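Limitations

Structures in this collection are predictions, not experimental determinations, and the ligand pose is part of the prediction. Treat each record accordingly. The example that follows, with 2-acetamido-2-deoxy-beta-D-glucopyranose as the small molecule, is included so readers can see exactly what is and is not provided: the inputs are given verbatim, and the output is the predicted complex.
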Amino acid sequence: MKALGLLIVLAGCFGGGDAQFPRVCTSDGALDSKECCPVPPGFTEPCGGPGRGHCADTPDPTVEDPAWKNINAYKVDDRRHWPTVFFNRTCECEGNFSGYDCTRCVWGHRGPNCETKQRPAARRNIRNISTEEKDKFQHYFDRAKNTTSDFVFALEFKENIRGSEDFVNVSVYDFFVAVHYYASRETMPPYSTGICGDEDDCYLDLAHRGAGFPTWHRAYLLEVERALQEVNGDPDWTLPYWDWAVAEKHQCDICTNEYVGANDKNGNLDSGSVFASWRTICEHLPPFYNATHRNHTRPCDVTNATGRLKRNPGHVDTVTYGESLTRLPLPTEVDFALRFPLYDTPPYNDISNCSFRNLMEGYADTTTGKYRGEITYANGTRVPEAFTLHNHVHIYMNGTMSNVPTAPNDPAFFLHHCNVDRLLETWIRRHGHADMFKPSTELGYDYQDLHGEGTSGGESDMGECSTPRPWSWGVWLGFGSAVFFCSFGILSVLEMCLFQNEASLGYTPLLR
Ligand SMILES: *[C@@H]1O[C@H](CO)[C@@H](O)[C@H](O)[C@H]1NC(C)=O
Ligand SMILES: *[C@@H]1O[C@H](CO)[C@@H](O)[C@H](O)[C@H]1NC(C)=O
Ligand SMILES: *[C@@H]1O[C@H](CO)[C@@H](O)[C@H](O)[C@H]1NC(C)=O
Ligand SMILES: *[C@@H]1O[C@H](CO)[C@@H](O)[C@H](O)[C@H]1NC(C)=O
Ligand SMILES: *[C@@H]1O[C@H](CO)[C@@H](O)[C@H](O)[C@H]1NC(C)=O
Ligand SMILES: *[C@@H]1O[C@H](CO)[C@@H](O)[C@H](O)[C@H]1NC(C)=O
Ligand SMILES: *[C@@H]1O[C@H](CO)[C@@H](O)[C@H](O)[C@H]1NC(C)=O
Ligand SMILES: *[C@@H]1O[C@H](CO)[C@@H](O)[C@H](O)[C@H]1NC(C)=O
Ligand SMILES: *[C@@H]1O[C@H](CO)[C@@H](O)[C@H](O)[C@H]1NC(C)=O
Ligand SMILES: *[C@@H]1O[C@H](CO)[C@@H](O)[C@H](O)[C@H]1NC(C)=O
Ligand SMILES: [Cu+2]
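Predicted complex:
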C-alpha cells in the first residue's frame, strides 16, 4: 500500500501535468496501447532489460481524498487515476536505476550502475557565491528556458486527446512551470459536474495547503536541479538558496541584475537583466470552451506566452495585506516556526493550528502558531489574513511570484523555495525526524549552513500552542495518524509519506 501511495504522490507531482510525458511515449501507437516502456538509446530491450529495468503493469492507484468528496470536478480529473488514465504499462527500474526508461539513478546515487552513494553537494547561499557562480546561475537558467525538454505537454485533457498531435514541445524550464501549475491550479476537467467560478469547486491543489507542501516542493526542486545539471552538462552544480530572513534591511537584496534582476517602479525588469526577455506561461485563468459551456475549460497552452516577469518587492497593498508584508519575514519568525515539533495537525490544510508545516507554508500567525483568517471588528477595524514565511515572501515580491500556481515563471521562485527546503531540513535535523523523512544527505545534497546553526535557547515559546499537556500525546497522534493514513492511502495526509526512510523515491515510473 505504501508503494502505491508513493506512486500517487510522485505521479501527482511530476507525472501529474496536463499529461506531460516523455516525447517517445506520445506517439499514436504508444497512446493507443497505453504503454510507455521505451528502449533506451544504446540498448535493445524496453527499459534496458534485466538488471536495469523491465516493462510492468502500472496499478491504478485511484486517489481519493475525503476533503474532495463533494468536489465534482475531481470525479473527472485526469489526476485521479494517474497515470493509468494515460499509461497502464511503464518501466519498473531495478537496483538504483530510475527514470522513465531506467537510464537515470535514484537521487543521491552516481556511477555507470548507480552503485555509488554520492557525496552530498552543498547548496549555497546565493549572497555568498563567486561572481562566476552568479553568472552560472543566470546562464544555466537561461539555457533551460530555451532548450527543448524531452517531455511534451498535452493541449487537451485525456477525454479530448486524439493523438500525438495534441502534444506540444516545451522548454526544460517551462516544463517545470507547467507541472507546478497543473498540480496546484489547473483543476477543471473537461466535463465538470459543477460550475467553475465557485473557487471551492475548482481548487484541487496537490502541492499547497496541505501536509505534502514541504515534501512536494523538495521533490520538485530535486527534479529542477537535475534538469539544470543535465541541460548545462554540469552534474555537480547545485541550486543556490536565498536566505530572505537575513536580507539587507529586510528588503529584496537579490533584486539586482547581479542576481534575479532589478525592476522599475512599475514592476518591469531592468533591460540589463538576463531575465528581462523571459516570457511567462499559464498566467491566464484556464479559458472556458465557449461562452455557454462555462464548465468546460482547456488546459494551459504552454506554447502561448502570457507576459513578462513582473516584480515590485515590498509594494503590496497594505490595506489588504498589512504593513508587515512591505518587508521580508524576520529571523524571529523563522525561529518560532522551527520550534514546533509536530510536522502537521488535523485537518492538514491551511487552517491547521500548531503545525510546523502550516507555519512554514504561511497560513499560521508567527506569534500564536494558529491559523488566522481575516477579521473585521464591529468598529470597522480590519485585521488581514495571516500570510507568513513562505506565503509572505511570495506576496512581498508583488508580481509574478505573488500568484503561487504560476510563481515558478520567476527564477526567484527557486531561490526562495530552496530556502524553504533548507528550513525543512533544519527542522528535520533539529527534531530528530530522520526516521520520518529522508535527510537531504540521503538524497545527494546538503546546505552550506542551516538556519540558526550553532545557536540554541529560546526554544520554549510556542505561543498559544505552548500548553504542554495536550500536545505530549498529540505528538504521537500526529505521527500515528500519518503512518495510518500512509498505509491506507488517503491523499492529503499521505503526501507526507514522501521521503519516509523506508519508502523508495525510485518508484515513479514516468520520471524517475
Ligand atoms: C491497459 O490499457 C489497454 C488499452 O486500453 C488495455 O487493452 C489493457 O487491458 C490495459 N491493461 C491493464 C492491465 O489494465
Ligand atoms: C544501491 O546503492 C547502495 C548505496 O546507497 C549500494 O549499497 C547498493 O549496492 C546499490 N545497489 C545496486 C544494485 O547497485
Ligand atoms: C562565504 O564565502 C566565503 C568565501 O567564499 C567563506 O570564507 C565564508 O565562510 C562563507 N560564509 C559562510 C557562511 O559559509
Ligand atoms: C519538438 O522537439 C523535438 C526535439 O527537439 C523535435 O524533433 C521536433 O521536431 C519538435 N516538434 C515541433 C512540432 O517543433
Ligand atoms: C455544463 O454546462 C451546461 C450549460 O450550463 C449544462 O447544460 C451542462 O449540463 C453542464 N455539464 C455538466 C457535466 O455539468
Ligand atoms: C459550446 O460547446 C458545447 C459543447 O461542445 C456545444 O454544444 C455548444 O454548441 C457550444 N456553444 C457555442 C456557442 O459554441
Ligand atoms: C493565447 O492566449 C490568449 C489569451 O488567453 C488567447 O486570446 C489567444 O487566442 C491564444 N493564442 C493562441 C494561438 O492560442
Ligand atoms: C485553531 O485555533 C483557533 C483559536 O484558538 C480555534 O478557534 C480553531 O477552532 C482552531 N482550529 C482547529 C482546526 O483546531
Ligand atoms: C476595534 O476593535 C478591536 C477589537 O475589539 C480593537 O482591538 C481595536 O483597537 C478597535 N479599533 C479602534 C480604532 O477602535
Ligand atoms: C502590487 O502592489 C500594488 C500596489 O501597491 C497592488 O495594488 C497590487 O495588488 C500588488 N500586486 C500583487 C500581485 O501583489
Ligand atoms: Cu508551490
